[in-house]
Specification:
Blueprint lengths: L6 E5 L6 E6 L11 H15 L5 E6 L10 H4 L17 H15 L1 H4 L4 E5 L2 E3 L1 H8 L2 E5 L3 E3 L13 H6 L1 H10 L2 E3 H6 L5 E3 L4 H13 L3 H17 L2 H15 L3 H13 L1 H10 L6 H18 L1
Parallel strand pairs: 2-3, 3-4, 4-6, 5-7, 6-9
Antiparallel strand pairs: 1-2, 7-8
């Protein structure tokens, strides 16, 4: 079996036609670091090369599926990182290239000729929802939650999957509010295939995976290709290109820079509490003025 630092993948011991891809940074709520996207892509490639495997189940270790990017590091720290540059001027195409590569690695789950199922407990938040929605099918615990909270400030979902999975009306509601929804709501809206009690999540997911695993690989690949082609014809690749560019802009416009400076001075937890509370986000000249004040406070601390 391949050896990774952020995840594990193997054949299920009792169900050899099923591969289990486990996001495995439970101490960080399986948050995405620099290695995670590359390792997802490599794990999917491994599973597709194993002839016995017919379906891939993606899940998270510990308390949840995935809490998104490790923003306690990227957002609060002082690193000079391609997806959040501190150089001036900001280079949008460098930002785009870095984030597009991550998007393409997440999309390996979507492109995989073998069906993929996201098994979600706890949170599939922000970038974690990107991973879940790149899977073909979604099974959630009733009390699990999924959403992209950074649409309120400092983020745009680069996979652009919400509209294709939910339709424009529901997608706009979640993008405009940054709200999360639970498993029951996700199933009622058609985002999740099933929502079940937490204790039934494993059994329900495996039952679905085994039902799929009985179908020949070639048939599964053809059926998936047909459905994916419809999404491509609807403009999925163009939507992802725009969303990935916009993601960089949201992190570097006055509002995004305010959020980062606030996180650096007050802590990322405080910044997230402001973002998610519904309290108005400073924008425009107000954001610029607060940035200057926060930078002065930051300099005074150093």
């Amino acid at each position: 079996m391949p050896d990774f630092s952020t995840l594990r993948i193997s054949q299920d011991a009792d169900h050899p036609r099923v591969a289990r891809l486990l996001l495995n940074r439970p101490e960080r709520l399986n948050a995405i670091n620099d290695e995670t996207p590359r390792e997802i892509g490599a794990a999917v490639e491994w599973a597709n090369a194993e002839n016995e495997i017919h379906v891939i189940v993606v899940e998270g270790a510990g308390k949840g599926f995935c809490g998104g990017y490790d923003l306690g590091h990227f957002g609060q720290g002082d690193i000079d990182h391609p997806c959040q540059q501190e150089r001036d001027p900001w280079d949008p195409m460098e930002d785009y290239a870095f984030m597009k590569r991550n998007t393409e690695d997440f999309m390996s789950l979507w492109r995989s000729p073998k069906p993929t199922i996201a098994k979600v407990h706890g949170y599939a938040a922000a970038g974690g929802s990107d991973i879940a929605l790149c899977c073909d099918l979604l099974v959630m615990a009733h009390d699990a939650r999924i959403g992209y909270m950074p649409t309120r400030v400092w983020g745009c979902p680069t996979t652009a999957m919400w509209t294709y999975r939910l339709g424009p009306t529901r997608a706009k509601q979640l993008m405009f509010t940054g709200d999360t929804i639970d498993g029951r709501t996700a199933a009622a809206w058609g985002l999740a295939n099933e929502s079940v009690a937490a204790e039934a999540l494993e059994g329900t997911t495996l039952a679905l995976a085994n039902r799929i695993a009985g179908v020949p690989r070639s048939h599964l690949a053809m059926h998936k290709m047909v459905v994916n082609q419809v999404m491509l014809a609807m403009g999925l690749e163009q939507s992802q290109q725009m969303a990935t560019v916009f993601d960089g802009i949201t992190r570097h416009n006055p509002e995004g820079l305010w959020f980062r400076r606030y996180a650096q001075v007050e802590g990322f937890k405080a910044a997230v509490q402001w973002r998610d509370s519904g309290r108005p986000i400073p924008e425009g000249d107000e954001a610029r003025e607060q940035i200057r004040e926060l930078e002065a406070r930051r300099a005074a601390k150093s």
